[in-house]
Amino acid sequence: MAAIDGLPPLRDVIATHGLAARKSLGQNFLLDLNLTAKIARQAGDLTACDVLEIGPGPGGLTRGLLAEGARRVLAIEKDDRCLPALAEISAAYPDRLQVVNADALDFDPLSHLTPPIRVAANLPYNIGTELLVRWLTPPRWPPFWESLTLMFQREVAERIVATPGSKAYGRLALLASWRADARIVLSLPPEAFTPPPKVSSAVVHLTALPEPRYPADPKVLERVVAMAFNQRRKMLRAALKGLAPDIEDRLTASGIKPTDRAETVSLEQFCALARTVKG
User: Fold this and answer.
1) Looking at the domain assignment, is residue 213 inside a domain?
2) Same domain, yes or no: 57 and 190
3) Which of 26, 98, 140, 271 is least buried, going by the fewest C-beta atoms within 10 A?
4) Do 30 and 65 lie in a common domain?
5) What residue numbers bound the domain in which 229 lies?
6) What is the pTM for the complete model shown?
7) What's the confidence (pLDDT) of residue 78?
8) Is 150 helix (H, G, I), strand (E, B) or coil?
9) What does the alpha-carbon distance between residue 151 and residue 60 come to, in Å, rounded to a whole number?
């Protein structure tokens, strides 16, 4: 990989620029350029796409995305220590990398991107879930992105792809499966990172559906799901009693037993309940 772009190995980049990972920023750097190229390939053919990357750090995945042919990469990096290293990558790929020094939670990237757009990132652990929820719940659908290829802690990845009846099944799985196809495409051990985290990691690939899988008002569905899983050990007739005085009748009308618990209810049933509640 280093031979492809003529840039030095990531260990040398980190040493040269003094880029010790900061826990406060949720940083864990991937140093194996073969691995970062493999992650980039999971995002599919990028030659006709702009790619949004959050938290590039020293630029391992950035280099993978560019080497795999991304038309353009917009990299949002909060840590200004990383900017000189990213500038070296930008010089090696003229006009194909734009780096913005900003907090991804406060920055709107859309004016800097041209569709089709894909997102690929080794997300900082401390903001990964919040960013995913934002990308899955825009005001209008379809979203700005065609696909998301994202690194998470293994536990979070399993929550995204979980199915009814499993311990990991909950709000994240429902949000993801309502509007996207989600699957785990790669697993990485702690020792792949510097510093090694205490848990394994996994890459999840989500492809946006043209429209939600079942009809439902997004705000009503979100409220129903949040109430159901906030008290996931309770029967739904108790967990959702604040939704409507006749909640048992509405549950039954939606094909859900009032004595069921949230973790056994399918996405289709939750959408039916959201329609019943709104009606």
Assistant:
1) no
2) yes
3) 140
4) yes
5) 218-278
6) 0.94
7) 95
8) strand
9) 13
